Amino acid sequence: MCIVEFKNVSFKYSEYNIIDNLSIKFSKNRFEGILGQSGIGKTTLIKLILGMLKQDKGEIVRNFKRTGVMFQADTLIENLSVLKNMLYVTNDKRSAMKFLQMVGLNDFTHFKAKHLSKGMKKRVEIARALCIYPELVVMDEPFGNLDLLTKINLASKIKFHLNELETSFIYITHDIEEALTICDNITVFYEKPLNINFKRYIDVQHKNKSILSKEIKEFIIRTSNRYPDFKSNNIFF
Amino acid sequence: MKLKITFLALFLCLWQILSLFFENYVLPSPYTTLLAIFRMIDYNLFNAVFVSFFRLFLAYVLSVMISIFFSVFSQFSKNIGALIETVMSSIIKVPNIAYLTIFMLIIGVGSYTVMATIAITIIPATTLAFIAILKQLDENILEVTEIFEVIYFKRVFYLYLPMIFESFYPVFQMSFSLGFKVMVMAEFIAGMDGLGYKLVEKKISFNIDELFGYVVIMTFTGIFFQKLLEVIYLKIKDVHSRI
Q1: Whole-angstrom Cα distance, residue A110 to residue A113?
Q2: Domains of chain B, earliest start first
Q3: Which of A70, A145, B112, B177 would you call most buried, defined as having the most Cβ atoms within 10 angstroms of its Cβ?
């Protein structure tokens, strides 16, 4: 069962092709990663997923209603308290408190967002994204400005509650190491317009595997050796 | 502060020098004007100051509330926003004297005409300023708001009103002095009392030193009330930021 499915989707900004005939599926209750260099169209992809943009061709099947979101930029309202930032998106105070507790910020509810550190802000954003019990959470380079250790800590907090939450995650990043550390599946976008998908850990779906750049191949192999969990999955090039 | 006092002293010197070249009924000296001010200090003066500033305060507060309503409502949809901006931009282009004439015809002379003229001047200026402030809202926060499907009521109280309140200070500085000027003009033409009307009285009775006295009093009371409201606003903001 997939949470989102793209069927031959194309999208243009004016005459410029951003996505061309893309077909891809994102599984339910998984941490799906989208990996690709900056400017390749990852953000456009999530805007299409969220329905903020309308595709020119093809079909997008969305099997979700409620969505949570996290961006790289801070999106808390700076002059509001942590709790009010939570209550901005939900009326359920109990749920807000539950998820603040989950991210370890239940003692900071009355702190204004502007007085929090970057890492704490991201934790509030995680809690805010989850407190509405979304079926899908889209994260667009959410921990971009943080160090890897903090990223892993934050991601592991989410993954720890993944089964309980019954939420699917789409995690977008340009950082290969981050994707390998955090995500269950990774789809690599490496050519523009986006028309190729490369399911790294499940199977390789693309016919012309040789076009995956040498650097990415080497990096994936090197990093996979450092992460034994991923070794069990077949990697084909 | 030192610079301001220096400029004031220079201005008074210049005024004194210029007054030497004119008769007292054309340009009275600062000293003559000061004597006239002391002579004028009585119930009538305080009444005129009170009436004028009461009108200004009432019209100003009402105008700001209406402006906040329009600017917040402009965020409801793009079309409503465009409509409000177009209407306000059109209203602001018409000279104040034209509105004053219309209000005099409809309402007649008196307090309501003065207040209506102040309001019609302040509302479009502050509405457009508030809309400009709201346009500076972080796009990412707006996107998040859309995605989480935050209801309009919450957007108003959590996002728009705090943003307006935070950035109100420069708008207040601009709009209050604008309202003050328009108030004097409206009282001069359509008032039955107040500071503007006092200018008419002194002009008719050819009491030039007292006329100058009223101009000085207007300047200082205008500055005083603006500073007073500024202090009140900054105090509220300070308390608000600490909560």
Answers
A1: 9
A2: 32-242 (1.10.3720.10)
A3: A70
